[in-house]
Write a structure and sequence with these properties.
globular; 21 strands; 9-stranded mixed sheet; 6-stranded antiparallel sheet; 2 domains; alpha+beta; about 425 residues; Conserved hypothetical protein from pyrococcus furiosus pfu- 392566-001, domain 2; single chain
Length: about 425
């Protein structure tokens, strides 16, 4: 079964938490981050995107950047913005979006579980991004941002969470995007023991939902320290890394869409004619069209929306990867007609999180930046976990989770 244990978290002062809490490092670029921290010296972006305090032309992967992250973190601690809990606790981090609240347990997952496959992945990671996050951990000596995990629902854990949240939260604030963030500290020793035991005895796997690179980095640095410590016991804090675990039933995956720069030399009509081999096509005109179900796609081309429904034979129901809509789109459209063979490396395709809405797809095509856009029906949590359970890897850019975890509510020291 799986490792999940409490830790002595570093947390922000209650009256500063809304200033400290920031968006995660990978959802905004350096220019956006600079703008966000302009009048806020307390933002945790100073730690997770420390280039905001360096010249604009700085190499984002230089030692100077990682040194700045360490310096900025220590400055926030020295200034009294953060304090460390005196005992190991679990925490509850809840988020409210559009009237729906999801409740995650914050604790530490095990490096060994990552290395031996108890922590299940569904995406490949890029070595350069892994190394970047590893350097951040090595230099700051902390897991600055939590990774977003899920697990199959457990009634005993639900019961504990439901008891804890009857109390007033330690932190409770709403961010500019309208999302609510609520945070409790679990100090009841019986609850702490019970949670740890339930994971050890009943939760077979933990699943990476969001944050594959941060997960890999945290685990690989922990494993690195194990190998370099001749007195390693297995109880050192570097054997564990911070995670937030949500029950699968509470999570919703939203769509992750595609925009393409050109039609690979085809006219619009020629392109549509080629698609008829694989799809039933229905023109929707200027009215936005959102996919209604699996194997139904939305396409925006030439100022018009289209419904594309995959024909029988374009996917395999008994193949967890082959049945995915992203696979159908790649195999029936992107690769054969648009000559996009490698989604990770092609410069002719870009990916748009569904949180931006269909209007963002229309905008990018109408602007002339892109030629065609495709909106997909989102995958389900069951599909994600089925793929992970079979040790399979999803194609790139399939899952988009909202709301994103805020950084800076708590962090974990490797000492």
């Amino acid at each position: 079964m799986s490792i999940f244990r409490p830790f002595k978290g570093f947390r922000p002062k209650k009256d500063k938490v809304d200033k400290v809490a920031s968006r995660p490092y990978d959802v905004l670029n350096s220019a956006e981050a600079r703008e966000e921290v302009k009048d806020n010296p307390y933002s945790f972006l100073h730690v997770v995107k420390p280039e905001v305090d360096l010249p604009e032309n700085v190499d984002l992967y230089s030692q100077q950047v990682y040194d700045k992250a360490k310096e900025n973190l220590q400055h926030l601690i020295d200034e009294g913005m953060f304090f460390q809990d005196d005992k190991p606790y679990f925490y509850i981090y809840a988020q409210t979006m559009n009237g729906k609240t999801q409740y995650g347990l914050v604790g530490c997952s095990g490096v060994e579980d990552y290395m031996n496959g108890i922590i299940k992945k569904h995406e490949l990671t890029r070595p350069d991004k892994e190394e970047d996050r590893m350097n951040h951990v090595r230099n700051t000596n902390v897991n600055a941002e939590p990774v977003f995990f899920t697990y199959r629902d457990n009634e005993k854990i639900d019961a504990i969470v439901n008891e804890v949240i009857k109390e007033l939260p330690e932190y409770d604030f709403t961010t500019d995007d309208g999302f609510g963030h609520h945070f409790w500290v679990i100090k009841n020793e019986d609850y702490i023991k019970d949670i740890q035991n339930i994971f050890a005895e009943e939760i077979k796997y933990q699943y990476v939902a969001d944050g594959h690179h941060r997960t890999a980095a945290a685990a690989l640095v922990g494993n690195e320290r194990k190998k370099n410590n001749p007195n390693h016991t297995g109880d050192e804090e570097y054997n564990f890394f911070m995670s937030v675990l949500f029950p699968a039933s509470q999570l919703t995956i939203i769509d992750y869409n595609r925009v393409v720069k050109d039609l690979n030399g085809l006219s619009e009509q020629e392109f549509i004619e080629k698609l008829k081999n694989s799809f039933e096509i229905e023109e929707k005109g200027e009215t936005e069209y959102k996919p209604c179900c699996l194997h139904n796609f939305s396409m925006y081309l030439g100022g018009k929306w289209y419904s594309l429904t995959a024909k029988a034979g374009t996917y395999k129901e008994d193949d967890p990867i082959g049945v995915l809509d992203v696979t159908i789109l790649t195999n029936e459209v992107l690769a054969p007609h648009l000559d996009i063979q490698d989604l990770r490396r092609s410069k002719r395709i870009d990916f748009v999180g569904g949180i931006r809405g269909l209007g963002e797809l229309k905008r990018r095509v109408d602007s002339g930046e892109m030629k065609v856009a495709f909106a997909l029906y989102p995958v389900s949590m069951d599909q994600l976990m089925n793929i992970a359970d079979n040790d399979l890897i999803m194609p790139p850019k399939v899952t988009w989770f909202e709301p994103k975890l805020r950084s800076g509510l708590v962090f974990h020291s490797l000492d």
